[in-house]
Specification:
Layout lengths: L3 E8 L5 H10 L1 H6 L3 E8 L4 E8 L2 H8 L2 H13 L5 E6 L7
Antiparallel strand pairs: 1-3, 1-4, 2-3
């Protein structure tokens, strides 16, 4: 069972919401390549608010993800596409149902 995760809240500038949605959807292949990323979800809360939730078996996997290609792409795009910096929270997984 994964023991740690990340929960990110991402608020797009209204005129860039479609670009943020495309950026997140396009990040799936990158997440699939990360050996330490157990689960990865990109989601939309509203027209301009998005999120990412992912889990890892350990802190090493979480740290590698934070230093990886998805985080780099998001931080590079942030000044142009986002209304505010991404809010990224470290979480501990208490229970999980996985396939």
């Amino acid at each position: 069972m994964p023991s740690v995760g990340l929960l990110a809240r991402i608020e797009a500038a209204p005129e860039h919401a479609a670009e943020v949605a495309a950026l997140l959807a396009g990040a799936l292949p990158l997440a699939q390549q990360e050996a330490g990323t157990r689960t990865w979800f990109a989601f939309r809360e509203s027209e301009t608010v998005f999120g990412i939730y992912d889990t890892f078996d350990d802190e090493q996997g979480r740290t590698a993800h934070l230093q990886g290609a998805i985080a780099a792409a998001l931080m590079e795009a942030a000044p142009r596409l986002l209304a505010a910096p991404p809010e990224i929270r470290r979480v501990d997984v208490l229970a999980a149902k996985l396939p």
